[in-house]
Amino acid sequence: MLADLSYSELQSFVKKMGLPAFRADQLFDAIYSAKSISEISNLPKGLKSIIEEQYPKYEIFHMLKSKDGTMKFIISYPDKAIVECVLMKYKYGYSICLSTQVGCRMGCKFCASTIGGLARNLTAGEILGQLLLVNRHLGGSKKERKITNIVLMGSGEPLDNYDNVVKFIRLASSAKGLNISERNLSLSTCGLVDKIYKLAQEEFNITLTISLHASTDEERAQIMPIAKRYSIKEIIDACKNYYNKTKRKIYFEYTLIKDVNDSGEDVKRLRDLTKGLLCHFNIIVLNEVAQRPLKKTTRLFAYQFVDLLKKEGVSATVRRTMGEDIEGACGQLRNKILANS
User: Fold this and answer.
1) Alpha-carbon torsion angle 260, 261, 266, 267, nearest 10
2) Which of 57, 104, 239, 297 is least buried, going by the fewest C-beta atoms within 10 A?
3) Which residues are known to be catalytic?
4) pLDDT band at 292 (very low <50, low <70, confident <90, very high)
């Protein structure tokens, strides 16, 4: 697919086809403006028919808007695969939460995205397509981008689709494309340690976020199967290496689950685990999923938990819940329309 190609790769594609060099610019502008092939007015019909199979055909299948202004977009692909991405508005601008896989095979018990398992990986261009389509929906274009921040925290485990995600980061941050600063891009992982070490070698300036959700390996294994492969200590060691390589603060996601990971002892263990690491905890009130038995705590309890962390010298805040009424909050994304069809 042409959206998988960088600008230089698109130039090579055009050259191999024996076309004038300016065609690469026309195609690149069209792709990054999320135009359908029929909307491209400066390409001859003959050329359109030749490249039609390789031209992006993703589209916004449906959109839901929350009472808090959050928007959830259901994106469809030619093979009938469907993913969801979420647009959130903040004081600084728009942030988009993108999916990296159709489904997920990590099996975290608090997350709806894992229900049904993994259907397939998204290509770099398919991940990019979510960003381009929503940018256009907001009235943006390649030259006038409306989205300021990207979070790779939708359905799927980004590091389980490593090569495509790394290429997406390069495409999204390219000066020739939307030119989104790497510093405004966050990647969330449940802790694939070998890939965290690999990511540190890429020399990106992106923020690494770890879905921790427990203070012991035993606790974590109850809710996250990945805990049977990697220990928390191994994850923390990988985070320290990532910080040493990038000097970027590490963020931890910690979803409070009633009577599982919400005790005073958990607070003390989190303090000890992260001692000496520049980090911050985002404390999340569980968004309950009908198919999962886990129970949430109250927001009041979440604030009390944060107060206990702060008293132990741990930086922490309660994450604001956005889009819960449209199942667009943390842990709620899934290809529900596809699953119910």
Assistant:
1) -140
2) 57
3) 84, 330
4) low
